[in-house]
TrEMBL record:
Localization per Swiss-Prot or TrEMBL: Secreted, Cell wall
Origin superkingdom: Eukaryota
Name used for this protein in its record: FAD-binding PCMH-type domain-containing protein
Lineage summary: Eukaryota, Viridiplantae, Streptophyta, Embryophyta, Tracheophyta
PANTHER family: OS08G0158400 PROTEIN
Annotated source species: Gossypium schwendimanii (Cotton)
Family: Belongs to the oxygen-dependent FAD-linked oxidoreductase family.
Molecular function via GO: FAD binding; oxidoreductase activity
Residues spanning the signal sequence: 1-26
Annotated ranges, domain FAD-binding PCMH-type: 75-249
Length: 534
């Protein structure tokens, strides 16, 4: 299935210009816009592709997919321009003109980067927004699909559900997350124990490299193809589209939610969950979401753990399984609902299930202000440790905080950690993520909330992975280290954060980067650096 249609002559012209331009820089940002205008087809195209700061639509286009509103304040650095390409030659031209005139290029898919790096930079930059590259083509006969990077997970799932009820794809549960960033960082979801990561099921891709060449799996080679499946976006090139292998699911799946709080012995139940969740049959996924809620005692707060599950089968099969393996949960039939796999995505994503059309709604998940961190847990946390972190949730700064515990085991236990850049496979009981949010009117006091999550993260250090303390790339966290904003970043400096995300795979990622983008054109505060660069 081909997405790319372009005339050969303009493409060759762009490649020749790119090869001759080198690192030529211009002092005027106006030269960049003039350069780009020259390479676009006509004036009507320009008005649909280039949004400058004086354009009435600039702010609406910029804010359209900013999911973390911590980065939509007046003080947030803004791009010189936003480019919304309509075809691949527009992307090639943007690469050429950005390189020629010394501007950083930030590539945005769904805008879910936790640190805003797909649309924020401290140096002069432009945004390349892939919002027009969102096609989804599903081939049920061969059980594959092509999906462009600007599409959302919801659009992918909707496209699959429109064709079949017995195929799915093992990626995340937030419908508004963009394909490009999610796949580039590995991507996990409610099918992780059954099928592994989204990246494990990518079988081809179409990419534009720093020289403007359009490559597929065969022409880019296996090293680069390996790197883009989990090594992070905005590092090796711009992935236009992904070919993915779909996975089988039953027509009917079952979901449930069981809530337990401090007054209901939640500490002991959580402790027990750690010994059970990763060993359950891989058709059953039970995660835990921890938040502060109102207590039954008037005016008081408690901490609640929501045990939320997906089972690839019917309720009559699920109930005896859980009652046997996890009787402490007290699961009853009234806690359960049967539905299709696509509906279960909305259910587990806490989105309205009025219609599958909600998968297409870009506002189905409210946008919030937040800071996030992540960990991997390899040994069960003792009850005393659980009591300790639950007590932190009773602090005032945790009113809009949450912790998610995602069980591994199953398929994740079978895949070697160097199979793809994402290394967190066998030996992990669960992944833990922490998020703290606050109200818009509290932005001036954001420091106290960020301090809270840093203290929480510090408390958890005793109970999580060590040497390195591992982290999930898609839950980006600049606290763990960053590159220089401009200029050279050494391997040693980048390895501070790189080994936490990628472990020993970081070394191979650096080698691939050095091979495909030695001048470090595609870069941000946590992009893979080449071994040497300007």
């Amino acid at each position: 299935m081909k997405f790319l249609q372009y005339s050969v002559l303009p493409f060759l012209l762009v490649v020749v210009i790119l090869s001759l331009s080198g690192a030529t820089l211009a002092h005027s940002h106006g030269d960049f816009l003039h350069c780009l205008s020259l390479h676009l087809a006509n004036s009507s195209t320009i008005s649909k592709v280039i949004y400058m700061r004086n354009n009435p639509s600039y702010s609406s286009v910029l804010n359209a997919s900013i999911q973390n509103t911590r980065f939509s304040t007046p003080a947030t650095p803004k791009p010189l321009a936003i480019i919304t390409p309509l075809k691949t030659s527009h992307i090639q031209s943007t690469i050429y003109c950005s390189k020629k005139h010394g501007l950083q290029l930030r590539i945005r898919s769904g805008g879910h980067d936790f640190e805003g790096l797909s649309y924020v930079s401290e140096v002069p930059f432009v945004i390349l927004d892939l919002l027009n590259f969102r096609a989804v083509k599903v081939d049920t006969k061969n059980k594959v699909a092509w999906v462009q990077s600007g599409a959302t997970l919801g659009e992918l799932y909707y496209g699959i559900a429109a064709k079949t009820k017995t195929l799915a794809f093992p990626a995340g549960i937030c419908p508004t997350v963009g394909i490009g960033g999610h796949f580039s960082g590995g991507g996990y979801g409610i099918l992780v124990r059954k099928y592994g990561l989204a990246a494990d099921h990518i079988i081809d891709a179409q990419l534009i490299d720093a020289n403007g060449r359009i490559l597929d799996r065969e022409s880019m080679g296996e090293d680069l193809f390996w790197a883009i499946r989990g090594g992070g976006g905005n590092t090796f090139g711009i992935v236009l589209a992904w070919k993915i292998k779909l996975v089988p699911v039953p027509v009917v799946v079952t979901v449930f939610t069981v809530n337990k709080n401090l007054e209901q012995n939640v500490t002991k139940i959580l402790h027990r969950w750690q010994y059970i969740a990763h060993k359950l049959p891989d058709d059953l996924y039970v995660d835990v979401g921890i938040t502060k809620v109102s207590s039954s005692q008037t005016g008081k707060k408690t901490v609640q753990a929501a045990f939320i599950a997906l089972f690839l089968g019917g309720v009559d099969e699920l109930i005896p399984l859980v009652q046997e393996r996890f009787p402490e949960l007290g699961l009853a039939k009234e806690n359960c609902s049967e539905m299709s796999w696509a509906e279960s995505v909305l259910y587990l994503g806490r989105a309205p299930r009025t219609s599958l059309d909600m998968l297409l709604d870009k506002n189905v998940i409210p946008r919030t202000i937040f800071k996030a961190k992540s960990d991997y847990v390899k040994e069960p946390i003792p009850e005393s440790g659980i009591e300790g972190f639950l007590s932190v949730f009773l602090e005032k700064e945790a009113d809009f905080a949450s912790m998610l515990m995602v069980p591994f085991g199953g398929k994740m236990e079978e895949i070697p950690e160097n199979e793809l850049p994402y290394p967190h496979r066998a030996g992990n009981l669960f992944q833990a993520s922490y998020i703290v949010g606050w109200r818009k009117e509290e932005n001036a006091e954001s420091g106290k909330y960020i301090s809270w999550i840093r203290r929480f993260y510090s408390y958890m250090a005793t109970y999580v992975s060590k040497s390195p303390r591992e982290a999930y790339f898609n839950y980006r966290d600049l606290d763990i280290g960053s590159n220089n904003i401009s200029g050279y970043t050494s391997y040693q400096q980048a390895s501070i954060w790189g080994f936490k995300y990628f472990k020993n795979n970081f070394k191979r990622l650096v080698q691939v980067k050095t091979m495909v983008d030695p001048m470090n054109f595609f870069r941000n505060e946590q992009s893979i650096p080449p071994l040497s660069s300007p």
